[in-house]
Design brief:
This protein has two domains: 3-93 and 381-393, Enolase-like, N-terminal domain (Enolase-like, domain 1, 2-Layer Sandwich), CATH 3.30.390; 98-376, Alpha-Beta Barrel (TIM Barrel), CATH 3.20.20.120. It has 16 helices and 14 strands. It has helices at residues 39-43, 46-49, 57-62, 74-92, 96-99, 124-135, 154-157, 182-199, 215-224, 247-250, 274-278, 289-292, 295-307, 320-331, 351-354, 382-385, and strands at 3-11, 14-21, 27-30, 107-111, 143-147, 204-208, 230-234, 261-263, 284-285, 311-312, 341-342, 355-356, 367-369, 379-380.
Length: 399
C-alpha cells in the first residue's frame, strides 16, 4: 500500500486531514478548533509522505516528526499521525488500540473542560452558579475543570487583580503574567471555595490557572488549597502557547506542597518531557495528542511518566469529534497512571450529522465505551460533509 495524496480542508474551523492510498483506503485526522492557519503547514508535509506505506506509521513519522514544534505547530504532524493510524486500523480491520498493544480498560474516563455555561460575572457566586450547572450535566462528570486567574478573564476583569497592565488584544493566547495583589489572590481563593462548596465530595475540581503565575503565587495557591478536593493546578507557570518548558520553575513548587501540580498541553515530542519527568517537576502531565505528535508519542510519554510516579490527564477540550475518537483509542491502552482525558465535543452540532460512528461516543457516568470499529471508528459521510466545505476545499473528498 502506498500513500497517493494528502488533502487538507477547513471544516467547522478544524483543519481536517485526509490521506488517500492506492488501495482505496483513506484515513482522517484533525487539529484543534480555530486553527485554519495550519492548512499550509500540513500541506508542507505532502511530498514527504506520498509514496510511502501508511501502515509503517513509525517510518513515515520519522520523516516528518522533527519538522514540527510546540503548540500550535505540532498539530500539523499530529493530525497526519492520526490519519496514518486510521488507515493502518482499517487495513487490518482492527481498532487502533489493538495496534498500540491492546486495551487494558473497556471504558475510558473523561473530565469536563468543554461543557460550559455562560457566566454572568466573575464573583464567587457566578463561579458557583456555573459549577452547579456543570455538576448537574447528564454526563455525570467525575472531575470538572474551571479556568481561573490568568486562564480566562479573571485577571483582566477583576480590577487590580495583579501588579501589571492587562492585555486583552491577543485573544486566547494568555498573554498576561505577574505577581497577584492581595486583593486579587483573595478573590481567587473565594471563587475556588465557592466552587468546592458546590461540588462537595462528589466531584473533583481541577483548576486551569495560567500560564502567568509567578513561582511565589504558585506555591502560595498550592499551599492554600491543600486538603481540599482540588484535583490539580494546571499550567500555573508555563502552558498553553508557551514554546518552552522551564522545569526548574516547577521544581520550586511541586516538592513543597501536597496539591497536585499539572502541565504539558503545549509541549511537542517526548524529548521535551524528559526534564519534567526525570526531575519529578510535576505530579500530573497533560499533553494533547493533537499537539504532542500523535498517539504513539503520547503512549511513550505516559509510560515513561508512570515509571516516575507521575499521573496522566490528557488535554483535549477543542479537539473535536475526530480528536475524541483518537483520545478514546489511546486512553484504552494507557498505563494505570491514567486519570481521565478532557472531553472534546462536536461544535457546531452538525458535526454529528457528517460523521458515521459519532453516536458511539456518548458519556455515561463520566465514561465512554471503547469503540471496536476499525481505525478511529468514525468515517465521513461525504454527501453531508460537502455542505460545509469551503469553495477552495471542494475537492477534499475526491480520489
Amino acid at each position: 500500500m502506498k500513500i497517493t495524496d494528502l488533502k487538507v480542508a477547513i471544516i467547522g474551523g478544524h483543519p481536517v486531514v485526509r490521506i488517500t492510498t492506492d488501495e482505496g483506503i483513506d484515513g482522517i485526522g484533525a487539529a484543534e478548533l480555530a486553527k485554519p492557519y495550519l492548512k499550509p503547514m500540513i500541506e508542507f508535509y505532502r511530498d514527504m509522505i506520498v509514496g510511502k506505506d501508511p501502515t509503517d506509521v513509525e517510518r513515515v513519522m520519522l520523516g516528518i516528526r522533527r519538522m514540527g514544534s510546540f503548540k500550535p505547530w505540532g498539530a500539523a504532524v499530529s493530525a497526519i499521525e492520526f490519519a496514518l493510524w486510521d488507515i493502518a486500523g482499517k487495513a487490518a480491520n482492527l481498532p487502533i488500540y489493538k495496534l498500540l498493544g491492546g486495551k487494558i480498560r473497556d471504558k475510558v474516563q473523561v473530565y469536563n473542560g468543554n461543557v460550559r455555561f455562560k457566566m454572568n460575572g466573575k464573583e464567587p457566586e457566578h463561579y458557583a452558579e456555573v459549577m452547579q450547572k456543570m455538576k448537574d450535566s447528564p454526563e455525570n462528570f467525575s472531575i470538572i475543570k474551571q479556568g481561573i486567574a490568568f486562564h480566562g478573564d479573571m485577571a483582566t476583569e477583576v480590577p487590580n487583580f495583579y501588579y501589571g497592565t492587562p492585555s486583552t488584544g491577543l485573544g486566547g493566547r494568555h498573554p498576561n503574567r505577574g505577581l497577584m495583589s492581595p486583593k486579587g489572590f483573595k478573590h481567587m481563593i473565594n471563587c475556588i471555595e465557592a466552587m468546592l462548596d458546590v461540588l462537595g465530595d462528589d466531584v473533583g475540581l481541577a483548576l486551569d490557572c495560567g500560564p502567568g503565575f509567578t513561582v511565589v503565587d504558585a506555591l502560595k495557591l498550592a499551599k492554600e488549597v491543600e486538603g481540599t478536593n482540588v484535583m490539580w493546578l494546571e499550567d500555573m507557570l508555563t502552558g498553553d502557547y508557551t514554546p518552552y518548558v522551564l522545569a526548574d520553575l516547577y521544581t520550586q513548587v511541586t516538592p513543597y506542597t501536597s496539591t497536585a501540580i499539572h502541565t504539558g498541553e503545549q509541549i511537542y515530542l517526548r524529548q521535551n518531557f524528559v526534564e519534567l519527568i526525570e526531575r519529578n517537576a510535576v505530579n500530573v502531565l497533560g499533553p494533547d495528542p493533537a499537539d504532542v505528535g500523535g498517539l504513539q508519542e503520547m503512549k511513550f510519554i505516559a509510560e515513561y511518566a508512570d515509571l516516575h510516579g507521575i499521573l496522566f490527564a490528557p488535554h483535549g477540550t477543542v479537539d473535536g469529534l475526530i480528536g475524541l475518537s483518537a483520545h478514546v483509542q489511546l486512553a484504552a491502552v494507557l498505563p494505570e497512571n491514567y486519570i481521565a482525558f478532557e472531553l472534546p465535543t462536536g461544535k457546531p452540532d452538525w458535526w454529528y450529522d457528517i460523521l458515521d460512528g459519532s453516536d458511539k461516543f456518548g458519556v455515561t457516568d463520566s465514561h465512554i465505551d471503547v469503540s471496536e470499529a476499525p481505525g478511529l471508528g468514525i468515517t465521513f459521510i461525504p454527501e453531508e460533509a460537502k455542505k460545509y466545505l469551503r469553495e477552495e476545499d471542494a475537492g477534499f473528498f475526491d480520489d
